Every structure is written in structure tokens, then in C-alpha cells.
């Protein structure tokens, strides 16, 4: 699936991933390929991605919103 992580200042990451774990405002949650459509709020914490080469990539965010739709994930992060 494709992901974009965007802050007000810049695009932090764009690429293809196998999975993602987000710090949801109600608790951490994961996203895999073919996930159901979702819009969720994020709290401050770590976003963990596993890319197509099984490499783990981490980003610290201050909060934000995530949208999952048709194997595309968009994160608007602070």
C-alpha cells in the first residue's frame, strides 16, 4: 500500500509499505494491506512503518489525523 506522511512544514515520507502502527488517540492501531476505510485521530508518539524491503522506519509526531482508503494512507501530522 502507499503512504504519505505530511507536516505543515514538509513531506516526511512517501512510499510503499507493508504495514504501519499509529499512536491513536484511543490507543495504538495497525494498518495492513486491504484495510477497511478509516479516519482516525493521532496523539503524540511514534509512527512505525515496515517498508517493502522489511526495513523498519520510525517517525515521531505530535499528533494529527490518518485516513485509510483503497490501500492509500495519508497522515497529516503535527
Briefly summarize what is shown.
0% of the residues lie in helices and 76% in strands.
Describe this protein's structure.
The chain has 78 residues and is mostly beta strands. The chain contains no helices and six strands. Strands 1-2-4-5-6 form a five-stranded mixed beta barrel. A hairpin with a 4-residue loop joins strand 1 and strand 2. The model has no long low-confidence stretch (mean pLDDT 96).
Main attributes of the structure:
mainly beta; ATP Synthase, domain 1; five-stranded mixed barrel
Q: How would you summarize the topology of this molecule?
A:
Elements: E1 2-6, E2 11-24, E3 27-32, E4 38-51, E5 56-69, E6 72-77
Parallel strand pairs: 1-6
Antiparallel strand pairs: 1-2, 2-3, 2-4, 4-5, 5-6
Specify the structural class.
mainly beta
Mean model confidence by pLDDT: 96
Spatial separation of the terminal alpha carbons = 23 Å
**In sequence order, what are the helices and strands, one letter per element?**
EEEEEE
